[in-house]
Amino acid sequence: MIDRAGLAVFLRRRREALQPEDVGLPRGPRRRTSGLRREEVAALCHMSADYYSRLERERGPQPSTQMLASIAQGLHLSLDERDHLFRLAGHSPPQRGAASEHISPGLLRILDRLDDTPAEIVTELGETLRQSPLGVALTGDSTRYTGPARSRGYRWFTDPDTRRLYAPEDHPFLTRMYASGLRGLVTLRGPGSRAAHLAELLVEQSEEFRTAWDEHEIGVRPHDVKRLVHPELGLLELHCQTLLDPDQAHLLFVYTAVPGSESHDKLRLLSVIGAQAFP
């Protein structure tokens, strides 16, 4: 059963505890609100300001689990706070661990400060959960996919458009890398895991994957320098720094170029072009 009063108080307290700079928003010179405004939180949660306001006023329908997940992410809740939110709203909390898509507040705070840098947060299966604006400009919106196609490794073997983002001479290595990475995950997570299901789908759908899978390679690591091909800017050679959240098995990828290099100049131009090169 929903605890409307408890839910309303909890949302207000969490909103008031957040400052604009905590979520990548400008403070502005005339700000009088303690914490974030309701409309700012609503935008972060991808819902209408009216809907969110009704929750804080103990009104409206019982939020769905999808709505609660958006609120938990928008308010930068910890896992314990997220679980508390779900219980107040009358739902069982989602599972934790590698299958969880709840991004930790720490990773979100870092990503919110990377507006001028290509960056993304992905799951261990290569599902993009969040991108910086320049990340979208570099590779397109990778959060738009659904089903198995959310996994970049799955798209590598089933969607030719995915391969256009990478230098052709790197394709054979990337095929080995994705097959090797998925095999390691299947061993780690077990036969009934999402990784195992993904491998079963790819064995059925891709002869190239079956060939690579039969090699039983393990430990094929990504190169330090990624060679990405942008539709308008051409080849960019970027270093990828990785930050791991071990509790959620989420990875924050940050892409940088050597100062003074051609790729560095292209990244600066990319911030002007934005994502207009992608449909």
From TrEMBL:
Q: Which GO terms describe its molecular function?
A: DNA binding
Pinpoint the HTH cro/C1-type domain residues: 35-82
- Which Pfam family, any one of them, does this sequence belong to? HTH_31
Quote the protein name from its UniProt record: Helix-turn-helix domain-containing protein
Q: InterPro entries, per this entry?
A: Cro/C1-type_HTH, Lambda_DNA-bd_dom_sf, MLTR_LBD
